[in-house]
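Posting here for the record, re: flavin-adenine dinucleotide.
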Amino acid sequence: MVYECDAYTMEKHLPDAVALPRSTEEVVRVVKLCAEHRLPIIPRGTGTSLSGAVLAVDGGVIIGTTRLNRILNVDYRNRRALVEAGVPNLWITNAVKQRGLMFAPDPSSQPSSTIAGNIAFNAGGPHTLKHGATTNHVLGFDMVLPDGEVVWLGATPDGGEDVEGYDLRGAVIGSEGMFGVITRVVVRLMKTPRAFRTMLVVFNSADDASRTVSDIIAAGIIPVAMELMDQPITRAIEDAYHFGLPMDAGAVLIIELEGHEAGIDRQLERVTELCRKNNARDLKPARTPEERAALWKCRKSAFGAIGRISPNFVTQDGVVPRTKLPEIMHFIYDAAKKLGLGVANVAHAGDGNIHPIIFYDERIAGDVEKAYACSTAIVRRCIELGGTATGEHGIGVEKAELMAVQYSADDLDAMQRLRRAFDPEGRCNPHKMFPSGKRCLNFNPQRQVAV
Ligand SMILES: Cc1cc2nc3c(=O)[nH]c(=O)nc-3n(C[C@H](O)[C@H](O)[C@H](O)COP(=O)(O)OP(=O)(O)OC[C@H]3O[C@@H](n4cnc5c(N)ncnc54)[C@H](O)[C@@H]3O)c2cc1C
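Prediction output follows.
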């Protein structure tokens, strides 16, 4: 039953079988057997996808990488590591932090989400604003193609970082498991920054918080992170974990600067001025590494806190130009209100990447349809505002139809042709990302309430 869905629970379907190989060779054997029998193969990490990207729509064989979980080699001189595909993101930093190194991409799911899952979605996180996403930190990997052939794309474990020819590594990053099964990955390690300034900034409204984000970037300052949490999520976190967050704040921002000691306080002063100009009512700096860790723990516990207040929720992942943050926040609140649903917001605000969390109860008739309608309307609005349907959670089955809103038929056809170069039969993770795919909705989306 664990494999009937991922963290997007609105659609469910059981695979015919699940294979948990322990080596590239075992993956090859499973893939060849599936090729012989023309079975779909679905690569899967730990299933934290929020878009139904590992749903076995037609059944088939899920190839899980949870036993491919070894860090094979750390090359400290060249600051890189060779890891198996199922290694959880955070394990890499944990393995090298004593030597002052880290693996930079930090999705909130980093204790559990795997490096190959991160590659398939080009995962980001709070610190993407300055460090970039997974594509900026993965140098190369091997991949078992749907016919069983193994190819190495990008930098090899012993080679240099630059590879001649097309950047096929880059083409696979973000391909949502449709090109093959990745088994080993070379990642880049970064030096841990020397100085941090982290603070919690309290506002009376999400508008003021959003405007602050735009003003800071407009002033030429790139903090390493600017995370927004609105009142419902701040309250939920505080109720669950008692971090000391203000229960009456309209919204809070966690702003972090990093770099060298020289100059960082000047930047902090400027950021403080901009917060005050936008009516910040309180600025609480983290004074110790422990206080800084507690602030990040509180942000990364957000999804867990929701479990206490709603039996079901769906998380959206649109992007808008930063200056449109106030507009999209109003749209989200209005849409949820019209449908009588609860909503809470976290956002990688520096990137304009919103994560509205819409509450529903699948036991109440009509609630699933309403949540689906609300969620879809928000993404459509993001696209209308000049943004995109996903920042980091992928398209999966959830947003496949919306790809046609964002892209022309020619664009989609070009994407499909690239896919077929890797997987001519379309057996690898079928029905994802492209419109008119089959779905497993257990409700009628046409019955949605207009938003
Ligand atoms: C609480 C929570 C917080 C989250 N926060 C963030 C966040 O801050 N940033 C963010 O980007 N995402 C976030 N996510 C979404 C999710 O964690 C990421 O997308 C993550 O990268 C998925 O990794 P996974 O190992 O769980 O992959 P899965 O969910 O198992 O699979 C995801 C995709 O990867 C493909 N895949 C998996 N393994 C392989 C492989 N070996 N070869 C080829 N394709 C493969 C699958 O086919 C699928 O398309 C969050 C999710 C949760 C539940």
